[in-house]
Amino acid sequence: MEHKTFSASIRPTDGVIAIDMAGDIDGSAEAAMNAAYAQAESSGSDPVLLNFSGVGYINSTGIALIVGLLAQARKNHRKLVTYGLSDHYQEIFRITRLSDFMGMYDDEASALQQIG
Amino acid sequence: MTSRLTGIWQKFRAAPPAASDLAEPTPPVVPLTTILPAVDIAPNDPLLAYLHNVNGPVEIARLQMESPALAEMKDTGVVICVPLVSQGELIGVLNLGDRRSDQEYSSDDRKLLADLATQAAPAVRVAQLVRQQKLEAAERERVAQELKVARLIQQTLLPQSLPELTGWGIAAYYQPARAVGGDFYDFRTLSDGRLAIIIGDVTDKGVPAALVMATTRTLLRAASERLVSPGQVLERVNDLLHPDIPARMFVTCLYAVLDPATGHLIYANAGHDLPYATGPSGVIELEALGMPLGLMPGMSYEEKEVTLAPGDTALFYSDGLVEAHDPQREMYGFPKLREELAAFNGGDLVAYLLDTLHTFTGPDWEQEDDVTLVTVRYAGPSSVQRGHVAREGGATLLAEFEIASAPGNERQAMAQIAEAVAFLDLPPDRLEKLETAVAEATMNAMEHGNQYREDRPVRIRAEAGDGQLRIFITDFGGGAQIPEATTPDIELKLAGLESPRGWGLFLIKSMVDEMNVSDDGHHHTIELVIDLKKE
User: Fold this and answer.
1) What CATH number should be reported for the domain holding residue A100?
2) Which end of chain B has the lower number of beta carbons within 10 A, N or C?
3) pLDDT at residue B253 in the model
């Protein structure tokens, strides 16, 4: 299995910001993920959408990164909403209780619909 | 400007697509123009070279050269042709007929066409590349599928469990190479209580080889039921296989019959690697000779005998071991095998040999051929039962390898385990969970056990038996305190009262049926257990 370098870019959609992620979320994703989130947060977007559809691999260090992101969001009273996670990673988000604190949707349309 | 006729010729690298691909669909409304199938330009046609060098549209009436393509163009009414050049390469030609208005092509028209060509060429090139990539991807997919099928056939036919004989330990190891080889091994308990041990190798790779292997195995099984002598079994199978086997394909095979009560082993050989017996009194090569199966009819196979004494181990193996190469392209070879067998002090011969193999090849070994090892150890009537001997009787070793302790290498461990257990056909979600558990355990071993040290690889071993799959991940962090695998408190982490880290062990536990941690003072091992009988 080859390592796919992580990348994140922000994209306005329907009045909020979506962070489109691609590649592997492991230790090496820290800088890019935090930079993208900082951009999204400073734009005032609430909630911020996290698009995982391009992500094929998340390890425990990646989970820690996402937990860190969520902690930051809560500190600044922002909500995070996720979509595009595979069944396997949705299960992992449930087991780790990340899904208790962030909505999980199958695609952008349903995510946008839910936040109204 | 509208022209009466147009056609486009494209230069293809691979087989050109069907003619229907080239013709553009005519629009349903009043056709502005007639679309012709392309005029084919042969690679040695001088027109090709001319068009490659000219800069801009060409009125072909002005061209005079020995060119079948040019002649055909003139015949079909092409008046002007526009080369499409992308990155210095001629990738296509746009052929236009008379203008509808019957006027000549003016210099403005020609300029327009030249501009069109400049715009169109890169787009056409991209379309060609996309098509090329799709063809290549489809081909890769097809090859991968064939290998998958061949491997499934092969692995379905390998024994799912090993014979259990009192006083004897039988172990088998099978590690397929990337390209599917044709190794097989089998055990048959004969009506008189003796055990037939069979190992073989089909030439060639892929589905045809896998089918020949399946046939050979069936013939050997049938023959073993009725014929007592190994030589006769091979003779019979050779005669039956010969008419049906594809030309130039053959099967090497070693057929041995063991009497567990006495240690007596009779064997015959059809071109396979010579087995060895190793024990306290040294190493013997079990030399019986004969032609591989399927090459020529009417062959006879000599039989030889040996008596194994308590403490002896017989080794049956295939080419993959002795033909393995080290980074300097030296072969493992028979002399080295003999040396290692002579130095063997008892215990698990499979693990021992794999150790010598992996030390020899190094971590970046690209395995060329299947590695098959079958060992038959005479523990003796009063053998001491040690912890790991129990495994020999019931478990098949699926994989054993080392991973260098560097960030990211857990992906390799994941991939190798996935390959090793592919034939178990786990449901996709359970396989993904297993992969996650293996990756996390490996990361844990590399980081905490081995401190990412270059000289401390992680050893990983996979076994199946008794309805369970067990994966052992071992590092050098023995003797340290084993941390408790508690459930991380996400609320504390979200409140910033605790580090966001610490999910590894918890994730592992959640992904498998059982996780056991053990420590022998030097090494620390995480054992992952998957219950294969669960849905």
Assistant:
1) 3.30.750.24
2) C
3) 97
For the segment A7-64, what is each residue's pLDDT rounded down to a tens digit?
999 999 989 999 999 999 998 999 999 999 999 999 988 899 999 999 999 999 999 9
Measured between CB atoms, does A112 come within 8 Å of chain B? no
Is A16 a domain residue?
yes
Nearest to B414 among A1, A64, A96 (CB): A1
What element of type H or E holds B391? Answer: helix B389-394
Q: Which two tokens stand for residue B354?
A: 């794999």
Say how far apart CA B517 and CA B508 lie, in whole Å.
12
Q: Which residues of chain B have pLDDT under 70?
A: 1-6, 11-33, 154-155, 178-181, 380-394, 481-485, 535
CB contact (8 A) between residue B494 and residue A27: no
B490 touches chain A (CB under 8 A): yes
SS (H, E, C) B101-168: CCCCCCHHHHHHHHHHHHHHHHHHHHHHHHHHHHHHHHHHHHHHHHHHHHHHHHHHCCCCCCCCCCCE
Q: Which two tokens stand for residue B480?
A: 């340290």
Quick check: pTM over 0.80? no
pLDDT of residue B11: 66
B477 Cβ contact partners less than 8 Å away, ≥ 6 residues apart: B445, B448, B449, B450, B523, B524
Does A35 reside within a domain?
A: yes
Delineate the domains of chain B, giving CATH numbers in brackets: 5-131 (3.30.450), 157-352+367-382 (3.60.40.10), 395-535 (3.30.565.10)
Q: Could you read off the pLDDT of A85-113 as tens digits, one per residue?
A: 999 999 999 999 999 999 999 999 999 98
Does a structural domain hold residue A1? no
- Number of Cα atoms under 13 Å in the Cβ half of residue B196: 28
Q: Which of B409, B436, B498, B509 to mutate to test the interface with A (most CBs of A within 10 A)?
A: B436
Residue A54 touches partner B, C-beta closer than 8 Å: no
Query: What ipTM is given for this predicted complex?
Result: 0.91
Closest residue in B to A2 (Cα) is B411
| Pairing outcome for strands B195-202 and B183-189 | antiparallel
Residue B324 contacts residue B331 (beta carbons within 8 Å): yes
> Taking the mean position of all CA atoms in its chain, how far away is CA B187?
25
Residue A87, in any domain of the structure: yes
Q: What is residue B484's predicted lDDT score, i.e. its pLDDT?
A: 64
Contact of B495 with chain A, judged by CB distance below 8 Å, is answered with: yes
Q: How many domains does chain A have?
A: 1
Best mutation target, A60, A75, A94, to test chain B (most B CBs within 10 A): A60
Q: Of B467, B474, B483, nearest to B530 (Cα)?
A: B467
Range of the domain at A41: 7-115
Q: Which of residues 359-398 of B touch A (CB under 8 A)?
A: none
Alpha-carbon dihedral B124, B127, B133, B135, rounded to 10 degrees: -100
For B378-407, b/e burial (b = at least 16 CB within 10 A) is bbeeebeeeeebebbbebbbbbbbbbbbee
Chain A with chain B: Cβ pairs closer than 8 A: 68
Helices (H) and strands (E) in chain A, counts: 4, 5
Instruction: Tell me how far apart the alpha carbons of residues A73 and A68 are, in angstroms, rounded to a whole number.
Output: 9
pLDDT score for A56: 92
